[in-house]
Each structure stands twice: as C-alpha cells, then as structure tokens.
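Appendix B, record 7
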Amino acid sequence: MPAMRWNWKGLAAAAAMTVAAHAATAAVPLPALGANLAEVSVSGLSAGGFAAVQLHVAYSATFKRGAGVVAGGPFYCAEGSVLNATGRCMTHSSSIPVSSLVSTTNSWAASGAIDPVSNLSGSKVYMFSGTSDNTVTQAVMNDLKTYYQSFVPAANIVYKNNIGAGHAMVTDDYGSACSTTAAPYINNCGFDLAGEILTQLYGPLNPRNNGTLGGTFTEFNQSEFVSGHGMAATGWVYVPQACTTTSCRVHLVLHGCKQNYSDVSDQYVRKTGYNRWADTNNIILIYPQTSTAATNSCWDWWGYDSANYAKKSGPQMMAFKAMIDRVTGSSGGSGLPAPTGVGTSGATSSSMVVGWAGVSGASGYNVYRGGSKVNAAPVTATNYTDTGLAASTTYSWTVAALNAGNAEGAMSAAATGTTLAGGGGTGGTCYTASNYAHTLAGRAYALWGITYAYGSNQAMGLWNIYVTTTLKQTGPNYYVIGSC
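Structure tokens (predicted):
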C-alpha cells in the first residue's frame, strides 16, 4: 500500500541476485486441471486483502466459496483516490462511507459491471486483524464486517481480532515475532491462520501435512493472461498429487505489498501455511505475483493502474479470472446443484452412514470426509457407509453429485457425526477454562460476544473470563462441549 514506508535498502543487493537467478527459470503455461468451478475461493493480506474483497464481490459467481481477508477493507473503499487509500482505508483518519459503498455495489451489480450480489449470500468470509496492526487498523476491518453484513449472513462471517499481531500474515511456526511489522510480513503468532481461513471457507479439513509435500510447485507464465498492468511475467501454482486425476477445489492466494517473489523470494508462496493444508485436502493454490513496476509491489485496489480496478473489467481482475478459468477448464464443474438433506446415522465405533436427498440428473455421487473422497467408485445410491473410523471421534462429511461424465457439481453443506466409544473408553482430551482463555488457546472463537467451539461450532455462552466451559478435543482442531 502506498503509505507503507518500509526500508528495503538492506535487502537490495540480495533481491537483485535473487531476481537474476529467478529470471533464468523457464515458466510453463498454467495447467488446465478440470478443477471444480463450484469450489473456488480467494484470500489475501493487506493490498491482497483489499483485492480479495474486490474479487469476491465483483466475481461472486466465480468465487462462490468466499474470501479470507487479512488486514483489508470494504469493497471500493478508496473510490479511486490514493488519499482515501492511505487515509480512511488504512489509518481510518476519517470515516469510511460504508452505506455509500454498499449502494455503489448494488448499482454496479444492477448495471452488470460486477456479478449479482445475490451470489454473496451463499458464500463465507473469514476476517483477521491483529491488535498491533497500525498499518491497516482494526477500525477499517470493523467497517469491512459492517459492509459484508449487507450481503453475507452473519452466521457465515468469522472475525478474529484478539491476537497481538502486527501487519503480517500469521502462522503458528514461521516468521518474525508476532507484533512485528517488518519484512517479510510473515509473523509467528502460534496461530495457524491459513488453516483457519480454509476451514471457514470449506468446512472441517483433514489434518495438514507437516512433512514433505506430495504435490508440485510450478512457476507459470502470467503474461498470457495479462501483459504489464503491475503484474509479473510469472506466478506460482501448487497442485496436490491427487489433483492430477481428481476434480479439486481452487484457492487464489494474494500476497501483500512488498511480498512478491522479487521482494521476499518464495517465502509467501511456501511459508505461509496454505500448502500443507492444500496437500491433504485436494485444494489447488494459485499464487499470482505483482511486478516491481507495481506501486510498492501492491495489487491495484485504489486505481494506480486502471479506473476500472474494482470492476470485472479491471485488467488485474480479468487476469485473476482467466487463471481460474484455465485451472477449472472446460471439464471443471458439472453445473449440478449441491445435494441437500445430508445427515449421519447408524454410528458404530468405526463406521457412520451418510445419507442425502437425490439430485435430479445425477448419475452418481462422491462422498468426502474432511475434504478427501472416501468412495473408490461413484455411489449410485443416496447413502454411503464410511468405515475405518476412530472411536469417539467427530467427523464431517460433504457430498457432490456427478453427471454422466463424472464431473462434480456443487459441494453440499457439511454434516457431522461422532462415532461410538470403543471398548468402553470415552477418548479425547478435555480442557476446562474460561471462555476467554479457550479463545486465546485456539480452542474456540468469539463472534458478537458469544463464544463458539472450533470444529463443532457449539455455542459456549458469553465471551469473558467468568464463564467456564469444558471442551473435549475429538479430532484435529475439533472441539465439543463435554467431559472425559
């Protein structure tokens, strides 16, 4: 962002050497992978956060799953003015006209400049703002929440704003001290932000891969999607091994200012935590890159490149959309609706029956547990018995309908179920603490003053130090109210 006055002189020589070596690498075309167009989402930090909001709102028919926004602000916040961008949209030096921005959104949607706002009602949003972020203050993110509430149900919005992070992407094991605002703008706060974003957008996930990743990183040619306009000649894509044969989800990741490859090498691409979740949950990750010609290496969220920067016709916006179109390809998504009525029954200590209502035109179904397909062949019935489960453990299942060519339609809402205890044991680990302490420990989150358990989303009561709750951990990042 233009007002971020970072001192990069000490890195100039190293950056120049990195760019020179990097330029020798030959980029390849972004592959067409037949990914599922119904399972597309976006997230970003700082300028990438503002750009993520732009994409989510302008291309809401494409980014159906929603957006993760770290230190961003409302759609069209700057209204084409760098003074607005550096003032009200970052420091909140003056108020942001949220109601006016909502009116502009509705007007542009009516004219076709952006997609219909009705698409937003089915999507989800995850917002993060550090209490030590003085670059994009929490007041700006508060206004973003107000903006989104005009289009997205409150139940679909999570706002995490109680960690002492500086202006940075937050991880649980890599980067600078949590309160830092300095290169590479990746901070270790003991909080897995990438995992929380992807879980909010896609539902409960399989545990992340903390070892060697099984997929491939590819440097792809961005020039075929856009030439100039503040974008680099190449970007990066991470493709899990399963996605070469399975129709996978797609998540677009947008770095912040001064975080492109020329600035910080591949740290944002490899160290922010997204890849290890993508690897075990069939999520293709696209990492577009700005060029050094872009102002402060930022994405265009105030009009430095185009007056249409926030519309579907914006050059960078069209490039992002073209990347999604390439990865989804002509075979991505069947157009079939999401199955409804998904539920669980018949629990044993090692199995669960998952059932759903039939979808007209479907030739079969795929069943996913925590994001991974569990059926070897298409399921022709409207129920499936999932086996090999652990006792006393809560799982989540989703279902997608298949057309005659086995292309998937939209993914259903998740249904959860808990297996019975094995051998008389209760299983799990219990934690008894105040609701406030649970949120600090990452076992729960607060929304509108009420505390909710991560995973099960069970309401725990008021978010304060006086209400005490016992949470039982029944799986990775999954907690229920109970006892051991």
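Remarks on this record: The chain has a mean pLDDT of 88. The first strand starts at residue 40 and ends at 45.
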